[in-house]
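Record minuted for completeness.

…
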Amino acid sequence: MVRFALLGSLVLALVAHASADDKKDVPKELAPFQGTWKVVKAEVKGMAVPEKEFAAGRFIFEGTKVTVIEDEKSKPDVGTFAVGNEKEPFTIDLVQPDDKALGIYKFDKDGKLTMCFATGKDATRPKEFDGKNAALLVLEKVKQ
């Protein structure tokens, strides 16, 4: 059984609060990410993760900082994110001082955010959103 903890460590469980200055200086390519997102679907190496494993999962994007909360019991870690949107698939990197998760992303017409991250230390950035050799996450923005 695949635990959401695997996803949390894979995509770097991250928590931070951005200052007001960080929010007003957000580059336009990061603007669509800003806010809190809940995980509505997760898949690892082509296998669906049961909803109970990710139901409390949240990503919070504030400025260039990102938060991934696994559940109410887990202690989150802090990191940053960067995107590249020159060509499709668009790229996303989640960065901690000692680690980096390489992924791709897209915003769907229904407003959902789909991200796909490489798995394993020597893995290369995914080229497709199939999740067969990666961790695939679908997020939905939380209304505030």
The two ends are 33 Å apart (CA to CA).
